[in-house]
Structure formats: C-alpha cells, structure tokens
C-alpha cells in the first residue's frame, strides 16, 4: 500500500517529467509543431497504450482506491495541518487579486482611504441590490414569463458592472465577479462623467484601475493639495512604484449632487409603456422640488428622510491622516429593505472576502454558535465541520467578523426605522361612536410625513404598509382584529393563498397602502396579479412595445398599476366598525393600533419560487426572514368606553415603536 508521502513523490515526478518534455519540445525545431507530431495518433505522449492512463495503472487501481489513502482521517491528519492552515491565506489572496481588477475597482480598494463611506455603503440597500435573492428570482421570473425578451432591463440598474463586463443575467452571485456582486458600488456613481438625462439605467462607466480618474461634485482641489503634500500623506500615482496608490484626478461632475442623477434608476418605465416605479416623477411634482430640496438633502444628510443638513468632516483618511473638512454625505440610503442572506456575505466585508469564499461562508453555522466559547467548549470531538471550518482558530476568527456584521445590521435596523418614522405618521385616532347595541366605530389617520414623494414610493406594488388592529375587552379577550397574518406570513388580502383556498376569510376592513398590478385579459377584462405579466394565448409570450399611442386611442395598456399611495403631506383615513355581536365581553374595550411595514409580501415569494433562489435558499427560509423583518413604525392605544353615542376625541395613548 502506498503512503501519502510516496504518492506525493510519484505525482511530483510525473509533473516534472511532463515539464521536462515540454521544455525539450519547445527547444526543438518549429517543424515539430508544424507537422503536428505531438498530437498524432501514433504520438507516444498520448498514445492509447500509454502507461500513464492505462486501465491497469497502479495510481488509480482498485486496490489504491479501496485502501485508506483518501479517507477522511488521512486527508486531515497532522501532517497536513500546515496545508490546511495555509488554505485561508490562499483564498484571501485570490480574492484580493480579483479586487484589484483593472477595469472596475472594488469598493474594498476604496475603503483604504474612505472607511466611513465604505461602512455606510457596505450595509446599504445599494450594496444589497445585486445580492438580494428576492430580486434575482423576481427578474429571472419576469424573463422566464416573457421568453427572455425583458433582457437586462432589471439587472442593469442593480448591477451596472456585471452588465458592462458581459455577465449573464441568470448566473448565481457565487459565480460573479466580486465587483459585480457589489451592486451599486463606488464606481457606478463615481466613474460616470456624462449627464445622460435618461431613465434607462444603462450607463457607460469609465473603465480604469485605482489610479484612473474618478468624478465628484467638488472637482480635484483637495486631491491636488494631497498630491502636493506627498510626504505627509505618503501617496503615489506611479503604477510602477510601491506605496499607497491614489487616483490621479477627480473630474468635476456637479450632476452627481442633483436629483436627476438619482432619476436615472429611480423612475422605471418599461419599453411597453408600463410605469413600474415613479419615485423621481413624484419628486418632480412635489413641494420639495418646488422648494429646491434635492433627493440627496433628505437621503444623504444627518437624519434619514429629513433635510436637516450634512455632517462636516474629512472625506478621506489617507494613511491615518485626515483630509480637509468638507460636507460629508451619508452613503447608507435607508429604506424598507433588509437582508435575508447569510451575514458572512452581507454586509460587504473586506476581511470576510479575504478569509473565505461565499460558498464557504454559507456553510458557517453562526446560529449554532460556531466560534463562541459556549459552543466550542461543549462541542463533541466527532462533530463534523465543513473542510473550511475544521480549524477552531478559523471559527473564532470568523465569529469576530460575524460580531462586526451583526453590529452593522443592528445599526442599519435603527436607520431603517428612522426613515420610516419620518415618512409615515400615525396621527389622530378618533372614537366616533360606541354602544353595546350598535357596535363601535373609530377612525385612524395615516399621514405622509414627507413633502418629496408619495409613500410608499418606488416599488410600491410590492411594498407593504398596513394597520394592525387588535381590540380586546376588559378581560383581555380579543373581540376584533384586522391586519393579522396568515400562516404563510401574508395579510388576509386577495393574494393570500389561505384566502384563495377558503381556509381563512378575507380581511374586509384591511387598511393597506400597497399598490396593485392590474393586467388586461385577452378579451378586455382586467384582474389583479402578483406579477404584472399578461397570460398570453401565444405559447411564447413576448414583451413588445406598443405600435401606436394608447393615449390617442384611449385603449387600456396590457398592464397597469392601481396606486394606493399617499401623496406628499396628505392624509388617508382608515375606518373600523365592530359589529355589536362581537361586543360580548365586559368593557371598557381597548384598541391597540400599529402602523406596520414589510419590505415585500410573502405571496411574491410564492409567485417567483419556481425559478429557484440563490444561495440554495428555500422559499420558506426567505419568507420567515421577511416576516422576522416586519417593523412596527408607530403604535397607539385607544380606550373605548361603552354607552357613548358620539365620543369623538376619546383618549388615546402613544407607545414606543419597535420591531
């Protein structure tokens, strides 16, 4: 039986032999290659009777395969510990090499001098744009239903780098270029030098390595000062010199601070006339636009969703030395989305990327406590870890990265609540009437707290904002409820599978601000659908531009959106009526009122699950994560005394909002 050491010697000899043969043939006359002697049928090197690949070759014989040579114990015995410990360094170097790619530098390269901006961006919705398994399955579903004629319409806003380097729209994020996985990364905004004035989302990014010019609203005044003080900042602009590399130029691009720059991606109009998202159009017709307030003023300032100024400080820390103070923009851009994927993958983390691949991180069981004293002190000796995580030191190092990730995610959670509370206001709650014989009637006012756009905005047909109502008697028994969830995590609306199947009743008093997709049927009727794709009699449906103006003919489009959003600073009133036969318990009654938010409904996950989800996630896993991310924006209680025919203005109590 061959030992591992003997096998290694055999393999080394074989490789050396091939190398020597290659060197010798390279030194021979070129006629050898011209005559194709090396690959002729009778060539000795690849002849059918060659011992190297013969059927009875000892190297791969049954005896060798049957012994302990490739057993798990031998693969990871003490002699191989050095190789095993070196693997993470090799993985890290491979990732760092990719991050240094010349065409589109990774945000990890920018982090060296811009750590504050990087941290904000790393946990933002922009950096999550391509990593989201919900978005990926959504766009793959649309392409599947339209025979791929939708093309890169969705992904070119989510992933400009990937589309510029020619990546497939369908491949897993595990197989994408590292900068492509970063979604709306640094170069997507700071490598644009043309004011397109379009809403297509297709942008030509200027290619170049880290030394190439970038573009910003201030120009290169501060950069020139840094370059004039190279001894202080220790920077180099020569690619052949070692040292801290820095861009050679900052081009002046003032449009980066204008709302129209945001409109490139935040107005989504399909080529068939369907208006999917209208955030920029809403803004252009808003009081904020009339007052000169920009998107950046609300979404890149000190408070998420409020134009109350910007931070002042250094835009860069070059070798630990700060640049001159200036206006600082926040690159977090809070919104309703949150991560449903492994924390080793998101937030973006340069140390995590250097330590392991995305596939390896998916195998790190942080929920089980890997890398904590509690787990490591009690884990059994026969516990089977994936190869990458068999070293206890690696698990502890990974846990240290996880703790930083958890802190970032918690910070993002507070900022998400901040922007939601500034965008939605739960105002007057009025008791109109209450009696045992006639029942209870009360109203709830929900107001748009911003003057910049409707709420919800953007992808409003898949954004959930609703009121959850629970009315209890004096004994705590629930006598009325609305806005509750079915077992899937959906509201009991017309898209709930449990309502469809007759297992639960429709919530007829549900207050929701979710817009609806309406599609036109073959013979002219309309119906609501989760996905705005018409059911076509053609076996191969296509998305085609209309051949004539529907405005002139008055003809309805193939699909439209029925908006239920609230305009800027406007108020929507929810009415609730409790029948008298529900009031069987003792009073007074108490209504608990919560204004709730969810990033998407679970029924969307059901509609797109047939194409599969990235990272091997199941529909149930994603749905559970979505429900876990439901947020209580505001909460109030209303006391309902019995026997009052007209008691408007009954006492209400504010409660602290939370999750």
Describe what this molecule looks like in 3D:
With 659 residues, this protein is an alpha+beta fold. Among the domains are: 192 residues, no CATH class; 213 residues, no CATH class. Helices cover 32% and strands 17% of the residues. The strands form eight sheets. It has a five-stranded antiparallel β-sheet. Helix 9 crosses helix 26. The longest helix is centred in the middle third of the chain and has 32 residues. The protein is globular.
List keywords for this structure.
alpha+beta, five-stranded antiparallel sheet, 21 strands, 32% helix
Summarize the structure.
The chain is an alpha+beta fold and 659 residues long.
Instruction: Enumerate how many helices there are, as a single number.
Output: 27
End-to-end Cα distance, whole Å, is: 63 Å
Strand order of the largest sheet: 14-13-19-20-21
The poorly predicted ranges are 12-87, 644-649
Q: Compute the average pLDDT.
A: 85
Tell me the major beta sheet. Answer: 5 strands, antiparallel
Task: Please give the structural blueprint.
Elements: H1 4-27, H2 31-34, H3 62-66, H4 72-75, H5 81-99, H6 107-110, H7 115-122, H8 125-128, H9 133-145, H10 155-158, H11 160-164, H12 178-181, H13 186-190, E1 214-216, H14 221-227, H15 230-233, E2 235-236, E3 244-245, E4 250-252, H16 259-266, E5 267-269, E6 275-278, H17 279-284, H18 287-290, H19 295-299, E7 311-314, E8 317-318, E9 321-322, E10 325-328, H20 350-355, H21 358-362, H22 373-376, H23 392-423, E11 424-435, E12 439-448, E13 464-472, E14 478-482, H24 497-500, E15 516-520, E16 526-529, H25 550-553, E17 559-562, E18 571-578, E19 589-598, H26 602-608, H27 619-628, E20 631-640, E21 652-655
Parallel strand pairs: 1-4, 2-3
Antiparallel strand pairs: 5-6, 7-10, 8-9, 11-12, 12-18, 13-14, 13-19, 15-16, 15-17, 19-20, 20-21
Helix pairs in contact: 9-26
């Amino acid at each position: 039986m061959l030992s591992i050491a003997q096998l290694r010697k055999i393999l080394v000899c074989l490789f050396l032999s091939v190398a020597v043969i290659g060197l010798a043939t390279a030194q021979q006359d070129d006629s050898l290659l011209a005559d194709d002697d090396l690959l002729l049928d009778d060539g000795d090197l690849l002849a059918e009777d060659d011992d190297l690949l013969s059927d009875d070759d000892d190297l791969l014989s049954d005896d060798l395969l049957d012994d302990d040579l490739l057993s798990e114990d031998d693969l990871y015995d003490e002699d191989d510990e050095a190789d095993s410990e070196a693997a993470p360094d090799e993985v890290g170097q491979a990732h760092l090499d990719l991050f240094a790619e010349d065409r589109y530098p990774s945000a990890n390269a920018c982090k060296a001098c811009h750590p504050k901006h990087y941290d904000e961006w790393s946990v933002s919705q922009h950096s999550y744009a391509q990593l989201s398994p919900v978005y990926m399955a959504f766009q793959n579903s649309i392409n599947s239903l339209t025979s791929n004629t939708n093309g890169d319409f969705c992904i070119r806003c989510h992933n400009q780098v990937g589309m510029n380097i020619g990546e497939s729209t369908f491949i897993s994020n595990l197989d994408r270029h590292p900068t492509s996985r970063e979604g709306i990364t640094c170069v997507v905004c700071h490598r644009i030098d043309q004011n397109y004035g379009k809403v297509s989302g297709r942008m030509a990014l200027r290619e170049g390595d880290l030394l190439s010019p970038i573009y910003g609203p201030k120009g290169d005044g501060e950069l020139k000062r840094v370059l004039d003080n190279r001894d202080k900042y220790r920077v180099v602009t020569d690619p052949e010199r070692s040292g801290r590399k820095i861009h050679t130029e900052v081009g002046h691009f003032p449009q980066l601070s204008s709302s129209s720059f945001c409109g490139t991606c935040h107005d989504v109009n399909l080529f068939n006339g369907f208006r999917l998202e209208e955030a920029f159009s809403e803004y252009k017709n808003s009081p904020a636009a009339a007052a000169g307030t920009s998107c950046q003023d609300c979404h890149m300032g000190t408070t998420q969703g409020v134009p109350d100024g910007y931070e002042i400080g250094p835009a860069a820390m070059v070798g630990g030395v700060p640049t001159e103070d200036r206006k600082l923009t926040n690159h977090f851009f809070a919104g309703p989305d949150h991560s449903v994927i492994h924390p080793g993958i998101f937030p973006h983390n340069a140390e995590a990327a250097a330590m392991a691949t995305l596939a390896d991180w998916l195998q790190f069981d942080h929920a089980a406590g890997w890398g904590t004293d509690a787990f490591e002190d009690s884990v059994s000796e026969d516990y089977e870890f994936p190869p990458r995580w068999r070293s206890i030191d690696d698990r502890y190092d990974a846990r240290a990265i996880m703790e930083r990730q958890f802190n970032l995610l918690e910070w993002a959670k507070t900022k998400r609540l901040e922007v939601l509370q500034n965008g939605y206001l739960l105002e007057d709650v009025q008791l109109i009437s209450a009696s045992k014989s006639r029942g209870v009637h009360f109203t709830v006012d929900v107001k748009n707290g911003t003057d910049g756009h409707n709420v919800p905005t953007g992808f409003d047909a898949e954004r959930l904002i609703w009121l959850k109502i629970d009315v209890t008697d004096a004994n705590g028994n629930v006598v009325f409820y609305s806005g509750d969830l079915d077992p899937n995590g959906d509201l009991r609306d017309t898209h709930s599978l449990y309502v469809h199947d007759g297992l639960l009743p429709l919530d007829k008093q549900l207050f929701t601000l979710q817009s609806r997709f309406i599609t036109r049927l073959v013979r002219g009727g309309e119906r609501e659908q989760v996905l705005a794709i018409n059911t076509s009699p053609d076996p191969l449906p296509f998305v085609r531009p209309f051949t004539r103006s529907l405005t002139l003919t008055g003809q309805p489009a193939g699909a439209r959106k029925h908006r239920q959003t609230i305009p800027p600073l406007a108020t929507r009133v929810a009415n609730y009526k409790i029948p008298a036969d529900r009031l069987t318990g003792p009073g007074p009654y108490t209504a608990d009122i919560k204004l709730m938010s969810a990033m998407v409904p679970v029924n969307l996950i059901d509609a797109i699950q047939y194409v599969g989800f990235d990272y091997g996630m199941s529909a149930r896993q994603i749905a559970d994560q979505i429900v876990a991310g439901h947020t209580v924006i505001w909460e109030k209680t209303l006391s309902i005394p019995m026997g009052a025919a007209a008691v408007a203005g009954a006492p209400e109590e504010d409660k602290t909002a939370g999750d």
